């Protein structure tokens, strides 16, 4: 690159042209890649919708209310039990994970000294690094046997709550159940909710916090009045992102859930199924209609996850909070 | 970022990758079971994949181990995914041969024929019994009749001290543990055979039909023979149906079963062979050696079956065809010596000769 | 509180400058609670380590909070309770991490060996304790490498477009679509490649099919983190470059990207760590192969996550032990990538510590 000289010498035309050409080529290249994203997503959407059509149109029984899944034999199939299981396990996971995630986020930002806080942040994020199949393996061989005691406890003392009801004989056994899947899911979404909450809480205006403390508030009161209110949108968004992740989780759930097609609120008893786990279990033996039905259920899952993620991103966008991603 | 650091890291990664690429090996030593396998009469090289029945998975693995040990360059991989998946993948053309305990239905047959461009053949490669595997604290030996089994698996018999079980086991002390049945949740030839047995030998009790996949009114589902046995392993009161080698692998007890004929029979190579001789008849035409099981005629262990390999009559990829032919030639002849040790039964001589004719035509 | 009329008195009653508990008393109360629990477990039929820990934790919290309530007042007690809650959350977060990594190391370590890492499952019979994961490691490495070769350049270019050239509707639309793509469940990506590439185009199982699915999952992660890093490059750097007459494309390539390089590398490493562990897409489209298969474009291949998944479903202890060792290997690969990425972040001048 030659220096631009002042005075009467202009930049050689050859050079201006070449830089303009370079700009055109490069910007064209990036535009093509951007368009590629469009094309790719469009292709995926169109292809999946087209492939799902046969299953959706086949009207032997309603796709939305049928519980059983027999597309290739009797032709009756539906996502009722799958959607129920997906939503139930994800919501239970949220109930278990969100308080703990918020607690650890608060501890990391407000209670821990700086270096410890950073270390804790890394450790919490490390939970997200463990592959889902390892969680499934661990869940199956370590967690499930150890969960029996908790299941019995919940069933005995909280059995009056419908979800913890169930016969003792069904509960005090090694059971692949919605409860087991929820616990694993809770562990898996914990780091996401914690990481985003951490960022959100970190960005609260220190002046507000110090003002509360100066007025004589205890730490808890400071949190309650100065930290939580402005963080609410960010935390809501974090929770929704966690929900989105839980809805789509496949392998860990497939290994620890009961693989039955019923709609039962008794999460401690063996059984349960989710859309993603069903696809993973059935794709191998699915014929033409079976595959189409699986794709249709996959689309349902995609739409649900998409809605949840969009709401989350919108909430963050509206609140103006800067979001640090990378790990999540 | 520091360019020299980048250079150093890249350099180390490249060296590591090269080292990694050079140091792996496909040789895993000599096969470890049964008698010393005799060398296959012909070898071929190439790469072939099979999928399907978990019933025959253990003996397939043994054959592959023996065959690959003697014929280097023969890369055969068999994965147990269930007969239903095997047939489906074969029809889609993603695998080269399928393993199945059930013969193909007409639509499955036409898909397979279309994939091959010629007729797809069933070739029985082994025979075995479906063991009733259980894990109940307090029961070390168990007799079960067909009617009781039907009651257990359709959910009407709920505890281990129920009247039906007491009737089959007079004098035994039975715990009151709840029965937890495990059935196959994937499309399974083993399910088809087992439910076929229940339908034939307990028609008044069993009303749920017989297929690779049925609507089980109760019980827990798991994928693959491994899955159901794993479930029973971990559950006190568990019971399931699977090929007997899975029980042996895990030292789980199996029940003596009483069918239409005979008495409560234990599962063994000889009782299975007896049943195949009396209850299996070839119904396929030409080189298709598929057959029918008549459970009411079985005089040995009443839940016995053959397991097939599904292949094309002719493969467009000559190398694959040659490898499959060489492998199957080994499997139905010398490979049958491995059957006993693993819990299978050798095929009757008449079937072997029919198989050899069919394989010879590949 | 006492209804004291005088202002000073009422202030004193409500102020936090009243009696406070010394830390030693708190520690003593906690120790006492643990002792009581021990006694309880020794005397009554209550059993079990887990039960003990839970009971002890409850009693400690109750005693500390109760003591604070009695001595220091309600506000301090609530604050103490909140602190206990935060500590509890911390423990509940670290426990699963510890148990997962620890148990995997324990069960996997028994089987992990140089032999295991350098042999495939070729010819391993059903009763044989031999065999290894070499073929799976090669398979995963190839699949992830190919996926990154597709996703990283394209992702970078998309990120550059969105930040540098795309200040228009199209750019916003692309950002939105990338967000949509992050939400694709991995199984749906796998289904797409299965239905499209493997079946409709009759390409069959292959490592490359897996790479396509992994690239679909990796692309949005790369785009988002690259985009974020590029945005962090100060505008003054860019403007100085333009002022010197450097064309835009050269500015991006020579100035912006190198400045953001550390952050982008971190993002790429984290994306790679994520997709290495993805099982669902691989399960659907790569098939299985017990032999070392180095051609990712034709023929089924093994892969590490699939190996673990298959072992998890097996009733044979031999398979299960191998699966644990494979899981340990997988965790080690991912954790190494992850820790390296974090260490790299510290050298990143763009990101405030």
Note the main attributes of this structure.
heterotrimer, B: 362 residues, alpha/beta, nine-stranded mixed beta sheet, two-stranded parallel ribbon, 13 strands, C: 353 residues, mainly alpha, MetI-like fold, 2 domains, 75% helix, 0% strand, disordered N terminus
So what's the overall shape of chain C? Answer: flat
Which band does the percent of strand residues of chain B land in? 15-25%
Q: Average pLDDT across residues of chain C?
A: 87
Largest sheet, strands/sense/barrel of chain C: none
The CATH homologous superfamily of the largest domain in chain C: MetI-like
Report the uncertain regions of chain C.
Answer: 1-6, 8-13
What's the mean pLDDT score of chain B?
89
Assembly of the depicted chains: heterotrimer
Count of distinct strands of chain C: 0
Summing up helix and strand content along with how strands pair, one would put the structural category of chain B as alpha/beta
Kindly provide the radius of gyration of chain B, computed on alpha-carbon positions and rounded to a whole number of angstroms.
Answer: 23 Å
Percentage of residues assigned to helices of chain B: 25-40%
Share of helical residues of chain C: over 70%
N-C termini distance of chain C: 46 Å
Total helices of chain C: the number is 14
- As residue ranges, the low-confidence spans of chain B are 30-36
Q: What's the count of strands of chain B?
A: 13
| Topology of chain C as a string of helices (H) and strands (E) | HHHHHHHHHHHHHH
- The CATH class label of the largest domain in chain C is Mainly Alpha
How can the largest sheet of chain B be summarized?
Answer: 9 strands, mixed
């Amino acid at each position: 690159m030659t220096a631009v000289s002042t005075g009467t010498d202009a930049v050689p035309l050859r050079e201006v042209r070449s830089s303009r050409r370079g700009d055109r080529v490069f910007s064209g290249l990036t535009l093509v890649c951007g368009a590629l994203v469009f094309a790719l997503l469009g292709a995926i959407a169109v292809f999946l919708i087209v492939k799902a059509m046969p299953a959706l149109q086949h009207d032997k029984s309603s796709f939305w209310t049928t519980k059983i899944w027999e597309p290739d034999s009797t032709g009756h199939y539906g996502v009722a039990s799958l959607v129920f299981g997906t939503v139930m396990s994800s919501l239970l996971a949220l109930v278990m994970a969100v308080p703990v995630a918020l607690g650890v986020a608060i501890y990391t930002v407000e209670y821990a000294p700086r270096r410890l806080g950073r270390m804790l942040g890394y450790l919490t994020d490390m939970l997200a690094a463990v592959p889902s199949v390892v969680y499934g393996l661990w869940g199956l061989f370590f967690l499930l046997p150890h969960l029996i005691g908790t299941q019995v406890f919940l069933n005995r003392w909280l059995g009056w709550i419908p979800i913890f009801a169930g016969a003792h004989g069904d509960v005090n056994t090694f059971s692949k159940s919605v409860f087991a899947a929820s616990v694993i899911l809770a562990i898996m979404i914990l780091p996401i909710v914690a990481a985003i909450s951490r960022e959100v809480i970190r960005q609260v205006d220190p002046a507000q916090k110090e003002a509360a403390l100066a007025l004589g508030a205890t730490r808890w009161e400071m949190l309650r009045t100065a930290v939580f209110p402005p963080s609410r949108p960010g935390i809501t968004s974090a929770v929704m992102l966690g929900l989105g992740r839980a809805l789509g989780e496949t392998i860990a759930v497939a290994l620890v859930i009961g693989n039955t097609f019923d709609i039962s609120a008794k999460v401690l008893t063996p059984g349960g199924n989710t859309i993603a786990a069903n696809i993973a279990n059935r794709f191998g033996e699915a014929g033409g209609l079976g595959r189409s039905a699986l794709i249709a259920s996959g689309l349902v899952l995609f739409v649900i996850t998409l809605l949840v993620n969009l709401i989350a991103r919108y909430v963050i966008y509206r609140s103006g909070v800067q979001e640090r991603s990378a790990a999540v | 970022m520091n360019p020299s650091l980048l250079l150093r890291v890249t350099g180390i990664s490249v060296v590591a990758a090269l080292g990694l690429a050079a140091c792996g090996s496909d040789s895993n030593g000599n096969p470890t079971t049964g008698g010393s396998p005799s060398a296959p009469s012909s070898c071929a090289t190439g790469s072939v994949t099979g999928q399907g029945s978990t019933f025959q998975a253990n003996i397939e693995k043994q054959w592959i181990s023996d065959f690959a040990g003697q014929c280097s360059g023969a890369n055969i991989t068999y994965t147990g995914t269930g007969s239903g998946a095997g047939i489906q993948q074969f029809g889609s053309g993603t695998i080269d041969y399928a393993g199945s305990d059930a013969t193909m239905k007409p639509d499955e047959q036409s898909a397979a024929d279309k994939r091959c461009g010629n007729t797809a053949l069933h070739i029985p490669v082994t025979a075995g019994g479906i063991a009733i595997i259980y894990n109940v604290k307090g029961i070390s030996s168990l007799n079960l009749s067909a009617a009781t089994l039907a009651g257990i698996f359709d959910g009407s018999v709920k505890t281990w001290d129920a009247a039906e079980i007491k009737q089959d086991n007079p004098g035994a002390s039975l715990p009151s543990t709840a029965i937890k049945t495990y059935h196959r949740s994937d499309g399974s030839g083993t399910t088809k055979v087992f439910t076929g047995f229940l339908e034939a030998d307990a028609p008044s009790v069993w009303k749920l039909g017989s297929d690779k996949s049925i609507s089980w009114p109760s019980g827990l589902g798991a994928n693959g023979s491994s899955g159901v046995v794993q479930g029973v392993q971990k559950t006190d009161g568990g019971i399931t149906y699977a090929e007997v080698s899975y029980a042996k692998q895990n030292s789980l007890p199996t029940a003596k079963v009483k069918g239409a004929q005979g008495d409560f029979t234990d599962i063994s190579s000889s009782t299975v062979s007896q049943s195949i001789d009396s209850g299996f008849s070839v119904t396929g035409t030409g080189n298709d050696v598929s057959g029918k099981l008549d459970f009411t005629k079985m005089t040995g262990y009443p839940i016995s079956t053959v397991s097939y390999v599904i292949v094309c009559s002719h493969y467009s990829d000559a190398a694959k065809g040659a490898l499959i032919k060489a492998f199957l030639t080994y499997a139905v002849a010398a490979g049958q010596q491995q059957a006993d040790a693993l819990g299978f039964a050798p095929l009757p001589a008449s079937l072997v000769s029919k198989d050899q004719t069919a394989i010879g035509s590949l | 509180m006492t209804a004291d009329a005088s202002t000073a008195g009422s202030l004193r009653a409500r102020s936090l400058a009243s009696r406070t508990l010394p830390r030693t008393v708190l520690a003593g109360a906690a120790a006492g609670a643990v002792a009581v629990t021990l006694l309880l477990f020794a005397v009554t039929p209550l059993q079990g380590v887990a039960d003990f820990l839970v009971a002890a934790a409850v009693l400690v919290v109750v005693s500390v909070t109760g003591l604070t309530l009695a001595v220091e007042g309600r506000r301090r007690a609530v604050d103490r309770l909140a602190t206990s809650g935060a500590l509890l959350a911390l423990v509940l977060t670290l426990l699963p991490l510890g148990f997962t990594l620890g148990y995997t190391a324990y069960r996997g370590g028994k089987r992990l060996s140089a032999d295991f890492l350098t042999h495939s499952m070729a010819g391993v019979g059903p009763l044989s304790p031999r065999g290894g994961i070499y073929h799976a490691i090669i398979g995963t490495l190839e699949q992830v490498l190919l996926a990154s070769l597709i996703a990283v350049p394209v992702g970078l270019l998309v990120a550059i477009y969105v930040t540098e050239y795309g200040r228009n509707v199209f750019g916003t639309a692309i950002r939105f679509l990338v967000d949509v793509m992050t939400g694709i469940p991995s199984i749906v990506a796998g289904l797409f490649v299965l239905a499209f590439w493997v079946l409709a185009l009759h390409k069959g199982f292959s490592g490359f099919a897996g790479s396509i699915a992994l690239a679909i999952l990796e692309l949005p992660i790369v785009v988002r983190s690259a985009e974020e890093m590029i945005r962090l490059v100060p505008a003054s750097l860019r403007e100085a470059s333009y002022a010197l007459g450097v064309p835009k494309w050269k500015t991006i390539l020579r100035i912006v990207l190198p400045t953001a390089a550390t952050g982008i590398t971190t993002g790429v490493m984290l994306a790679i760590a994520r997709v290495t562990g993805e099982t669902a897409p691989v399960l659907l489209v790569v098939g299985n192969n017990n032999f070392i298969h180095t051609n990712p474009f034709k023929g089924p291949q093994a892969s590490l996550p699939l190996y673990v998944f298959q072992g998890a479903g097996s009733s044979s202890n031999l398979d299960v032990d191998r699966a644990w060792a494979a899981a340990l290997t997988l965790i080690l690969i991912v954790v190494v990538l992850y820790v390296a990425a974090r260490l790299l972040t510290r050298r990143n001048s763009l990101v405030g510590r």
